[in-house]
Amino acid sequence: MSRVVIVGGGISGLSAAYYATRAGHECTLLDPAPHLGGVIRTETVDGCVVESGPDSFIAQKPWALELIRELGLEGDLIRSNDHLRKTYILRHGRLTPMPDGLFLMVPTAIAPTVTTRLLGVSTKLKMAFELLRRPVADPPDRSVADFVRDHYGAEAVDYLAEPLLAGIYGGDAADLSVTSVLPRFVEFERRYGSVTRGVLAARSGANSGPPPALFLSLKGGMQQLTAALANHLTRVVRAKVSRVEPGYRVHFDGQSLEADHVILATPAYTAAELLRGLDPELADLLAGIRYHSSITLALGYERSTFQQPLRGFGFLVPRVERRLLTACTFVGTKFPHRTADNRVLLRAFVGAGTNDALLDRSDDSLAGDVREELRRLLGLTATPLFCRVQRWRRAMAQYTVGHERAVEQIHARLARLPGLHLAGNAYLGIGVPDCIRTAQLAVAAIDALDRLV
Ligand SMILES: Cc1cc2nc3c(=O)[nH]c(=O)nc-3n(C[C@H](O)[C@H](O)[C@H](O)COP(=O)(O)OP(=O)(O)OC[C@H]3O[C@@H](n4cnc5c(N)ncnc54)[C@H](O)[C@@H]3O)c2cc1C
Fold it and tell me: Boundaries of CATH 3.50.50.60 in the chain?
């Protein structure tokens, strides 16, 4: 049994503590926040389940689902209403449906691609000719924008790739690495040349039968998961860690704890500062991972005052349309159990990027501008019953071009510091399942090291 100190109590740190405790280690988790769970935060407001951070996770990556089952929460799993799934994109001020058959920005059905009003003729032709591309032996890392422009044209970047990825990373397709963000598409390019042919081939090889749900969540919201994990903690210290010294000694509030293993489950820029005294080069690599900020607004309405049809899961706003909003989800359409029958809940996103001035604006000012945009886009004039504004400063790691290489370098440096481990959204993927995976890998590394000594 080892003494394991976990720094950070978001989903990464909480799941690391869970797996390490299950493996028989003595665990202490440190986090200064009054609320454990990091960016995962659910409130029930006036008959609505309001998520300020993630509202779900993708079903395709198994790690969150496995953990939920292990924690006995399977009975509370909910699936996205995929039969109602439709996403609208703002184009020239009008909400236009995304064509059916799109897999992210990859067209897989002919008729909807030909007839869509979202894309012009030259993009449609480029999409058709994409099928003729030849395999690429060793594709280099590039930005997602360069990759998509090359395959499908500039319009597919502006009206598909950019808004879709902004919703996940809060980032810019011109900066994000295609190798890190869309690795399967790079593999398809290598094998088939055409990404469309790759997607079609993968589909034809998949099991027939009803498609699995796209997104999963929990009836009581994502916080049900972090609350269940927090219940398994044996020791929590509500304190901010200031540094980690060799040995390892973890310092906080003028005190310290000795540990055989330390898992740093904070954002990478915090891990960088905690480790600077131990390994400045590692600290520089970690500090090199950029983060963007984001703002979510939950607007709850009395249904009888809400006249607009809620078609689909919501809409995305491409950057080229120059609005404050980047996306808006119609929560009650996307998931069951989220709103009382007499309520309508909208979840609006404002991509703050690195714009601190936006984060510093008052709730009233942000809510006023978002409501004005909703009026223009949806004709929505009803007064909300409530509006919750949540700012997430530097919460979304940016997987920029060269990210995969940077993570390899981080792991190479980390190998010189046995007993020190990293978990979080900066490394293998930004989603909740990816964070859980990093926690599993950190605990597996602890077990592997312990077996050696
Ligand atoms: C608005 C938003 C929407 C999202 N939507 C989705 C979604 O729908 N699906 C999905 O899969 N993912 C989504 N994500 C991404 C995902 O939620 C996050 O990547 C993930 O939850 C991050 O978890 P984490 O534990 O790594 O980090 P965090 O949640 O950021 O937790 C880090 C913790 O470290 C603590 N900490 C920081 N410094 C110190 C210190 N010095 N000492 C001790 N503790 C410290 C903090 O207090 C915090 O609790 C979303 C993210 C955001 C912000």
Answer: 3-38+223-289+400-452
At which residue do the structure tokens 């980047």 appear? 326
pLDDT digits (tens, 9 = 90+) for 422-444: 999 999 999 999 999 999 999 99
Q: What span, in angstroms and rounded, lies between the C-alpha atoms of 334 and 214?
A: 11
Question: DSSP character for 150?
Answer: H
pLDDT per position as a tens digit, 284-334: 999 999 999 999 999 999 999 988 878 899 999 999 999 999 999 999 999
Ligand 1 atom 37 nearest Cα: 266
Q: CA–CA separation, 356 vs 294, rounded Å? A: 10
Task: Name which residue sits closest to atom 48 of ligand 1, judged by CA.
Answer: 38
| Both structure tokens of 7 | 């720094």
CATH number, span 291-397: 3.90.660.20
Rounded CA separation 302/345 (Å): 9
Q: Is the pLDDT of residue 207 over 70?
A: no
Domain 98-205 of CATH type 2.60.120.620: no
- Cα(203) to centroid(ligand 1), Å: 32
- Looking from the CA of residue 426, the nearest atom of ligand 1 is 26
